[in-house]
Amino acid sequence: MTTQFGKGCHLHLIDGSAFIFRAYHALPPLTRKSDGMPVGAVSGFVNMLQRYVEGNSGPDAPTHVAVIFDKGSHTFRNDLYDQYKANREAMPEDLRPQIPLTRDATRAFNIACEEIEGFEADDIMATLAHQARDAGGRVTILSSDKDLMQLVGDGVEMLDPMKNKRIDRDGVLEKFGVAPERVVDVQALAGDSVDNVPGAPGIGIKTAALLINEYGDLESLLDRAQEIKQPKRRQTLIDHRAQIELSKQLVQLDCDMELPFTLDDLEVKDPVVDDLMAFLTEMEFRTVTKRIADKLGVEAPVVEVATSAEEVAAPEAVPFDADKYECVRDAAALQVWIDRIWERGYVAVDTETTGLNEMVVDLVGISLCVEAGQACYVPLAHKAAPADDLFGSDDMADGQMDMDTCLDLLRPVLESDAVMKIGQNMKYDAKIFARYGVAVAPIDDTMLMSYAMNAGLHNHGMDTLSDRYLGHTPIPIKPLLGTGKSAITFDRVPIDQAVPYAAEDADITLRLWQQFKPQLHVKQVTTVYETLERPLVPVLAQMERNGIKVDRDTLSRMSNAFAQKMAGLEAELYQLAGHEFNVQAPAQVGKILFEEMGLEGGKKTKTGQWSTPADVLEDLATEHDFAGRILDYRQLAKLKSTYTDALQEHVNPDTGRVHTSYSIAGANTGRLASTDPNLQNIPIRTEEGRRIREAFVAEPGKVIVALDYSQIELRILAHIAGIDALKQAFLDGIDIHAMTASEMFDVPLDEMTPEVRRQAKAINFGVIYGISGFGLARNLRIPRGEAQGFIDRYFERFPGIRKYMDDTVSFAKEHGYVQTLFGRKINTPEINAKGPHAGFAKRAAINAPIQGTAADVIRRAMVRMPDAIADMPAKMLLQVHDELLFEVETGAVEDLIGTAREVMENASDPAVRLDVKLAVDAGQGANWAEAH
DNA sequence: ACGCTCACG
DNA sequence: GACGTACGTGAGCGTA
């Protein structure tokens, strides 16, 4: 019954993207009950298709129809002009997962559904319209996009589906002032701010049409531009000729594409009722399913809708099956996966490497997963022989793709805006890819999703998440790599063993994502995830890759000096003790102090050993030199081993710099943590330790700049607890600890003694930590009763603080979590515990909103910083909780300080209006010691 | 592997 | 009435 497309045929071309966006914006967010999948746009899309189908009767009915979609964001137009559509807003988060479903919906209606990588839907429609016209048929384009108006004429018309208004030649003339053939000329001149087509500055559609009508076409106009009377207009056309010609190329649709299908493939077919009903049921659309079933004259299938998330069993589990994972060994096999990724719009990615330090390790292989249970591993650099093979052990194993070939094939998907790349701790993989020249974006991260939802409940490593949320224990890596000295790197793992392990990681990640993504809304942490967690990934990746220059010679000299002093102290200590012992063993030190010397005040740890912490030794030091010497020795040993020695090992041989790694999901409160090495605890409190910072230097011609928030936690406390006296003090720029002391002890500010101020300062910090009489007493070394008196006095003067504390604890007891000002949730599972646990949990709950809000503030500043300083010769290097460190060219220091301070001081805006202004102190110098 | 101690905010 | 406590981290060392 197939008829050849030709005279008498009528082709309908539906602009799929326009349908999707209209559907998305017309409907409120709607989620599928069973799993929370957003389906609002799909529902709207289905409605529009249904209305379309219903309206297709009578003599004007189409014989052929197709819905045409965009695919990928990179087209030949981006090659012509990299700014094409560059200012287009990113696709909304909850729309992206619905895109593949709109394809499914179209197929469910048995309507042809077409898209071609690298081309816009407009080009496909242009080509089809020309083919149909040339074959003698009629064409109707269902779209209101003015870019398509150039196609109108000779049997091609547009139909605005919203206004139900047909647009023919006259309609185009009305809109553009020229015939359809000249529409591109007008667009080339007028440009298009939506698509970021430049055009000619200062010329709009009206003027453009005037000029084209006068000179006939664009080429003639540009050739004869000298003749234009208005001087400004003339000059614009002469100056911007290249830009105008480029614009024409951008707006000109491609009517001669090679299509992998023919018009005949687009013939109108009746829907297959079962397929359509199956799709609607799967989407859990009750009303729409019933309506369409009625229209089709069939019984509506029962759509089961769960009443709450808890009642729903886990989405029917596809069992984990390592045998199903594919090993991808050549380009053809990889291409199959890439095609599937484009079709899906998302992919879970995992990299395997030769180690854990992403600045050093080599890429060994890549895993991909597009659907639960369906994953592959692409081995790239596995060695042929195991490590203990003495002969030819560096030969590559057979059957692996060439690294560059693989990365070149994957790069388009990994960099495409249209494909979401899903990872578990994506910062790691993104840094690896970055070193291989691939800029992975956009990304989702299951670790960060878990962190946003479950901070405080458990850690967010893959093993934990898989066990907890998928009920599946991942294949352990240990048996593959071995332990200790005989451990091998992943490139020595035989490929057949690597495949199940590596592919499973991607499979797990995808399943976690499918589960977590819809839950972000339910748990109301989407904004936290999207503004405070995820955007930090590229920012931190860049900072970590920047690294900071560390001068090994400086450290080395200090290390030698420390060693000498330690040797001297060691000898003295042996003499004082009367025998040799291990100075660094607390148990031995305790034995000497509390048994051999018989000193009082010793306590034992829960393991039964003598305890010798610094504060105890400090008290003893007044009685006996031994304790003081131990303290001195310990300080030096700490500085030497942790800083001057270990830090040198962390200098990267390629960059000469130290590259820390930040954990985004480590600290429950939202703070970052720095590891390998920890650069957030470089000494500063003692003069000797502080000198370590002299080794953190700027390159020649550059300067280290440090900006830190002044008293940010106390300011946040003043805001949250609404303490007017504190707010006023910050407003007036008064010394906040002195003010506290003055209020508490009725001492005028100008008679304040350092001792009284010190006590008030301890109380201020104590408040932030969830103060207790015992803790304050120990900190200030005063009797417990006296400390309690201070606290009572404090609460009398600042009753808002006590209220904040009580309110916070009762909120935590009721809800099981506390919140920062920006909505970050910190779970408090122990808050209702009995016994000593309870005290910990209470204090943590009191502290978390304050510490967490401060953490949120600096995160916001960091996310905004790269754009703010983009045109400055400056790099952001480190974050130390309330401080950001930069390396800046000497001439740009003041600029950088001005801009970065602005970003930091206003970081809470516009989400939160703080009653207290945030203040930022700045310093600069050749090294970190000078900058602080 | 774990506890102790100590470096930072 | 006793208990055991300042909040949040990471690293190096000694000891099991």
TrEMBL record:
It comes from the Bacteria. Keywords: DNA damage, DNA repair, DNA replication, DNA-binding, DNA-directed DNA polymerase, Exonuclease, Hydrolase, Nuclease, Nucleotidyltransferase, Transferase. CDD domains: DNA_pol_A_pol_I_C, DNA_polA_I_Ecoli_like_exo, H3TH_53EXO, PIN_53EXO. NCBIfam families: pola (TIGR00593), PRK05755.1 (NF004397). Belongs to the DNA polymerase type-A family. In addition to polymerase activity, this DNA polymerase exhibits 3'-5' and 5'-3' exonuclease activity. This is DNA polymerase I. It comes from Yoonia phaeophyticola.
